[in-house]
Structure formats: C-alpha cells, structure tokens
Write a structure and sequence with these properties.
Layout (H helix, E strand, L loop, with lengths): L1 H18 L2 H37 L3 H5 L12 H8 L1 H34 L5 H10 L9 H11 L5 H25 L3 H9 L4 H12 L1 H17 L2 H5 L8 H4 L4 E2 L2 E2 L1 H21 L1 H7 L6
Helix pairs in contact: 2-14, 4-5, 4-14, 5-8, 5-11, 8-11, 11-15
C-alpha cells in the first residue's frame, strides 16, 4: 500500500508538472534566481557596509565624523593615514604584530607537520588520548594562562619580546594545526610512503620533496587559521608586552584621551589592520578553496 501511494503521488506530480507550460517554468525559474540573487546581494551588502563605513570615517576629520552623517567625505583628507605612517609608535605596532605572527606561524608549522604525520601514520599506546588532550587546550580561554606565562617569561627575561607572544600563541595554534594537518595526511595513501622507501628515499627527503607538496592545500588552510588567531588575539599579546613589542591592538587604545577619542586615526588604524588579512587570503586563496573541500575543515 505504501509503495502504491508513492507511485500515485509520483504520477500526480508528473501530471501537474506536465500541465505547466514552458513559459510558466521559465517564470518560476526566473523568480527562483531573483530570490537567490537578492539574498546574496543583501548578504554582501550587510558584510561590506561596516568596512565601507570604516574607510569613510578614516578619510574624514573628527569634526565631520561627529557632525552630520555623510555617505561620502565632504572634505576628504589623508591626514589620519599620514599621522600613522609618520609616528613610530603607530607603525611599529604593525611591525610588532607581524613579527610575532610570522614567528608563531613558522614555529607552529615546523612542530605540527611531523607531529601530525606521526598521528596519521603510526599507532602507539595512548595516541588517541594524547590527540584528544591536545584538542582540550583549545577549550581553555587564554585568560587562564596569563599569570603563569607572565611569571615564567618575566623570570627568564622573555617579557616584552616578540618570541614571548609567539610561544604563548603556540599553546593554542599547535593543537589546531595538528588537528587540521592530520586530516589531510590521513587522506594520503600509505602506499606512497612505502613506494618512496623502496625507491631509496630517506625520510627527510621523502617528507620534503614528495609528501609536503601533496598536502600543500592543507598547509595553506592551516597557515590561514594560524594567522587569524595570532593576528586578532589581544589578551596574551597585551599582557606579555610593555613597550618594545606592543601589538597594534594595544596601541589603538591610545586614541582615547581626556580630550576625547580621535575617531579618524582610530578608523584609519582599523583599515590598515584589515589589509594584512586581505593579503594573506589573496595569496592562499587557491589552497583555501581546495582545502575546505578536504581534510578536517
């Protein structure tokens, strides 16, 4: 009876569809395309609007920003950007941020690659428990580790250095990198390793010349996530630095003074903070597109 009901419903739908004319079907498809494009356009508009407004504010003076709302600067000025590039305390904030982010990405990827390979190729006692323990580091907020890191780095003389922030971020980025890379490495057949050994490849030569190029999409995705965490993380970077290695996020708080907030400079600093992320996405865009379809992403 159930199969008969399904067959009857199918015949009913086929009959209804056959009654529709080609013009009606084209009209229905056009409405569907219009609805999809409208929703996509609305989504893009809501995403781009804050960025556009930030750029708009960065090209205005404080008096114009605090005055009437304008969709375009009436008196466009680049003084906010000039003030950032001519003030060492401002542009050094970007340099400091990029330095410890680059150090963190380099250290993390060098540690995570062999560790992820071990988890994907070998089985040992407690391997699953160790893998789970690494992931639990991601569940703890950075504030939990502030005091231990501060006391440790101050004792060994690493306080207010770029390497201090880079090592602190490794606590969160290394487990994330291992988790992502292990998924990509597990998708590579083990027969490739055995064939390389038969052909006389040593492990370092095989790993660098054969294996790493095969998972370059996974490495690109991993570097993207590592950059995102280190670039936007502020709590550890702010606590472990004082003057010489302060990140741009900390320096942006200086715009708030007794006379008020320098909105124009703050907006210009925000625009410049977005630029490195756009460049990273641009250079690894092909790897990200492939990587999101594979591995653990």
């Amino acid at each position: 009876m159930y199969r008969l009901d399904n067959a009857q419903q199918g015949e009913k739908y086929n009959t209804i569809f056959s009654r529709t004319t080609p013009a009606q079907r084209r009209k229905r498809n056009a409405r569907s395309r219009f609805r999809s494009r409208f929703l996509l356009g609305l989504y893009l508009f809501l995403m781009i609007l804050p960025i556009y407004w930030l750029i708009n504010m960065s090209l205005q003076t404080n008096s114009e920003i605090l005055g009437s709302m304008t969709l375009w600067p009436k008196n466009m000025t680049f003084d906010n950007y000039i003030g950032i590039f001519t003030n060492s305390s401002w542009y050094m904030g970007y340099v400091n941020s990029m330095l410890y982010v680059a150090l963190n990405m380099l250290i993390t990827i060098c540690v995570a690659l062999p560790a992820a390979y071990a988890f994907s190729r070998y089985r040992f006692i407690g391997d699953k428990h160790l893998f789970f323990w690494l992931l639990t580091n991601l569940m703890a907020p950075p504030a939990v580790f502030l005091l231990p890191y501060f006391q440790l780095y101050y004792s060994v003389g690493l306080f207010d250095t770029h390497i201090a922030v880079a090592l602190a971020h490794c606590l969160f980025n290394i487990p994330l990198a291992i988790w992502i890379l292990e998924g990509f490495m597990s998708s590579v057949p083990k027969e490739i390793d055995e064939t390389a050994y038969i052909d006389g490849y040593s492990f370092p030569r095989f790993f660098i010349k054969i294996f790493i190029p095969m998972i370059r999409s996974g490495i690109g995705v991993t570097l993207f996530f590592l950059f995102m965490f280190s670039w936007v993380e502020l709590l550890l970077a702010r606590t472990l630095t004082a003057t010489d290695a302060q990140p741009i996020g900390m320096i942006m708080t200086r715009t708030s003074t007794a006379s008020g907030i320098d909105w124009g400079t703050l907006a210009a600093a925000g625009v410049l903070t977005i630029v490195p992320g756009i460049l990273v996405v641009y250079f690894v865009r092909n790897h990200i597109a492939k990587g999101f379809a594979l591995g653990r992403t």
